[in-house]
Amino acid sequence: MLYKICIRLVIISISTFVLVSCASKSQPDPDGGTTDPLDTIAFPFPDTTAFASLNKSDSIFGSSARFGDVDIFPESALAGKTGVYNKANDYTGKAINLDFSFLAPAQDTLKKRPFVLFVHEGAFIYGTLDNEMGKAKYFAQKGFATASINYRLGFAGGSESNICGSNKQELIRTIYRAVQDTYAALFYFTSNAETLGIDVSQIFLAGSSAGNITISALAYTKEADFEVLHPGIVKLLGALDPHQTAKRFKLRALLTSLGYGLLKGSSFSAVTAKPTIFFQRTGDNVLPYENGPLFFCSSYPVISGAKATSDTLVKFNVPFELNYEKETGHLLSFPDAYISQRYALFVKRFWKKDYRQIVSEKYTVISDKKIN
After folding, report:
1. Secondary structure (3-state) at 83
2. pLDDT reported for residue 41
3. What share of the chain is helix, strand, coil (3-state, %, to 5)?
4. What predicted TM-score, i.e. pTM, was given to this entire model?
5. Residue 198: exposed, middle, or buried by beta-carbon count in 10 A (0-12, 13-18, 19+)?
6. Does residue 292 carry a pLDDT above 50?
7. Is the separation of the CB atoms in 343 and 337 below 8 Å?
């Protein structure tokens, strides 16, 4: 008996040493030297108890004066931070810096704020994080911590003047790289959650156009799904989420505008589905409103748009809000301030457990169904 107790004490001592060693590693420093920030971990991955108080925080955030349609903080009360969250090779093999812009209330009494990460549009060819900073500012003024990121752009054969000049495999690879970069950004922000004042149990992803394809792929398209779409992609480009970043945070909902794009073959089910808000035109000529090939290029991957995806969420009994315009074209007439307001109110209802499936044409509610 004494022998067994000694053995157990030895095992416990070794386990404790390993955990303390992992916890003591330095935080990522993408600005210092050439070290890949994914080589270090700021704190151990949280176990299931890390989110035990989720319902309590939902209730607190839902009843707070913050986070709704009122701007609690003036723009002058916000503080920004910019930097590089990772370094990676683009589609040509060139090493590039991937940067971010972070914005949140300064000297905030709330030490851990819900966090919204914005991913910009641009057909995976153009665009920058600046395109999303308008919405990020609106959210920061409502009391959120926010950030917008740049990610790797470009694919062989594709250009602004000839968007259909490439092939399916190239598009799958560029989406895969964008998801890798978004995971890398989430790794950076969760690693620095304490200093940035981020609540890792309240993470929201927001995207526009190509950014929507990226965040929906992060939420639903696993490595195995990508392998079906592009055999050998993991060996070619590396792990999708090499440091299991998904275990470090709780993704609560998706906030989308300028269309939507869920890759066909993704692991999208009643179990995995996230509450989602959509903004898209019924005559979108870049991303299908229902189902179809990406950019309407026949050789590109098939995606599901806002209408097709929201119809599925109806069957899954998952909250959503679909805002559509009966117009042709990709760009919306909704101003950023209105989109941000609808985003915030959607999140607020979710926290209050006021689960609804809402469909609006322009600014008019067509249907509003409360669900259990």
Report:
1. strand
2. 28
3. 40, 25, 40
4. 0.87
5. buried
6. yes
7. no
